[in-house]
């Protein structure tokens, strides 16, 4: 179980750095009059809120991982949701490279 949590945290560190870079690009686009959207993700991605930047989504996943790490046994449904959120973030962040 600890190995799974460590791997999730490693991925979060990578995603966090990419999210900061992508948020800067989004800020630049918005200043140029682009980026008129309501949220980065739809409800299908598993997030329960809407945001126009990546950082809130990364922090949401980090909180989920923290919740998983405080239990003795991993809740497979929660783990699946965390993985789904991470995949969504990685896929969208890949478009900003």
Automatic annotation (TrEMBL):
Keyword list, A-Z: Coiled coil
Coiled-coil annotated residue ranges, if any: 5-32
Protein name from the UniProt record: Prephenate dehydrogenase
Organism: Pseudoalteromonas piscicida
């Amino acid at each position: 179980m600890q190995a799974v949590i460590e791997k999730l945290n490693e991925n979060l560190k990578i995603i966090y750095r990419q999210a900061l870079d992508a948020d800067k690009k989004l800020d630049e686009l918005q200043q140029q009059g682009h980026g008129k959207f309501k949220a980065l993700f739809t409800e299908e991605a598993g997030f329960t809120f809407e945001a126009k930047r990546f950082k809130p989504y990364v922090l949401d996943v980090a909180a989920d991982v923290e919740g998983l790490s405080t239990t003795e046994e991993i809740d497979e449904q929660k783990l699946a949701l965390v993985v789904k959120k991470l995949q969504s973030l990685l896929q969208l962040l890949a478009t900003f490279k």
